[in-house]
From TrEMBL:
EC number: 2.7.11.1
Originating organism: Streptomyces huasconensis
This protein's record includes keyword ATP-binding: yes
Enzyme superclass (EC): transferase
Designated name of the protein: Serine/threonine-protein kinase
Regions crossing the membrane: none
InterPro entries named in the record: Kinase-like_dom_sf (IPR011009), Prot_kinase_dom (IPR000719), Ser/Thr_kinase_AS (IPR008271)
Key words, A-Z: ATP-binding, Kinase, Nucleotide-binding, Transferase
CDD domains, alphabetized: STKc_PknB_like (cd14014)
Domain named Protein kinase: residues: 6-266
């Protein structure tokens, strides 16, 4: 089975929003191909949004942002091809490695800030920075999650037609409906990601979405366990409710890079070993496909990749996570507009 000239190798993830496949290009390069069901593409507003976001994604460059390689917005089932990132998702990598220390946080923060700089240079905010949208590869963390539209109802559109983000990582000004998503909101989300990497928990707790959103709006972030004295201060700046008081992406990059050391934590055991195992598994699947075997696409969406680490890269990282929008269920403690 081919999609846009890419040979489908294995189904990695499936949701109501579509499917994510491991595929190979004509040159044998591993690629992640995401397809959207025709029933969603029948909505012309969605198809146009898909076209715009795929084009914006292709304009994003940088070492730490997963590249959008190609797209078919006019196909019966629209598709987008994204650089395949072999490695564990950030939650799995941190669980394997343990909470990050001062220098390790610096390396992660610098990589993600550099990725965001590339996204913003393309003229778009990311809007959904979160741990499950980060894959840790041999070349460092890769930020995913842009360049692919998600269907939203007319009642759930933000000011510019997008869902607002994920509970625990969406900036408070977006919840209050004060401003359009922008770089400051991505800095807020990056601060929350760093807090998770340092402590293993979200700075606004867990539980039902409305509860997390209420804490985001009305409570101070929980940074207990963030290492050192400087990191709680800096992450606290990223998570301040006033977007004008947050550091810029450039300031974040410089601050984090000044605390990173080499080699970075993803090049050391046990994370490096986990990455190698997953690279080998991808290589085996591609070799299997090159020998002419039929791509597996069964009722079990993970059948061909059962037990493979690549599920950490795209099965987990790209499986749909809850997002919130202007039409999220009302909570009396949240001033929805």
């Amino acid at each position: 089975m081919d999609v846009g000239g890419y040979r489908i190798v294995s189904l990695l993830a499936e949701s109501r929003l579509g499917r994510v496949h491991l595929a190979r290009s004509a040159s044998g390069r591993p690629v992640a191909v995401r397809t959207v069901p025709a029933r969603l593409a029948a909505d012309q507003a969605f198809r146009e949004r898909f076209r715009r976001e795929a084009a914006a994604g292709r304009a994003v460059t940088g070492r730490y942002a997963a590249a959008v390689l190609d797209a078919g917005p006019d196909a019966e089932e629209p598709w987008v091809a994204i650089e395949f990132c072999a490695g564990p998702g950030l939650p799995e990598a941190v669980a394997t490695h343990g909470p990050l220390d001062d220098a390790e946080l610096g390396a992660l923060g610098a990589a993600l800030a550099e990725a965001l700089a590339g996204v913003h240079a393309a003229g778009v905010p990311h809007r959904d920075v979160k741990p499950s949208n980060v894959v840790v590869t041999r070349d460092g963390p890769k930020l995913l999650g842009f360049g692919v539209a998600k269907p939203v109802s007319a009642e759930s559109l933000a000011a510019d037609g997008r869902a607002l983000g994920s509970p625990g990582f969406v900036a408070p000004e977006l919840l209050a409906g004060d401003v359009r998503p922008g770089p400051a909101a991505d800095v807020f989300a990056l601060g929350a990601v760093l807090a998770v990497a340092a402590t293993g928990r979200g700075p606004f707790g867990s539980g039902r979405g409305p509860e997390v959103l209420s804490r985001t709006l009305h409570e101070e972030p929980d940074l207990l366990g963030v290492p050192g004295a400087a990191w709680p201060w800096f992450i606290g700046r990223c998570l301040t409710r006033d977007p004008a008081q947050r550091p810029s992406v450039a300031e974040t990059l410089a601050w984090c890079a000044g605390r990173a050391v080499t080699p970075p934590w993803w090049e050391t055991e046990p994370v490096a070993d986990l990455i190698r195992v997953q690279e080998e598994e991808v290589t085996e699947l591609l070799a299997w496909a090159a020998e002419g075997a039929e791509a597996t696409d069964t009722g079990d969406p993970y059948a061909a990749a059962a037990g493979l680490g690549i599920l950490g890269a795209l099965g987990t990282a790209q499986r749909e996570q809850p997002t919130v929008s202007a039409a999220a269920p009302r909570d009396p403690r949240i001033p929805w507009r």
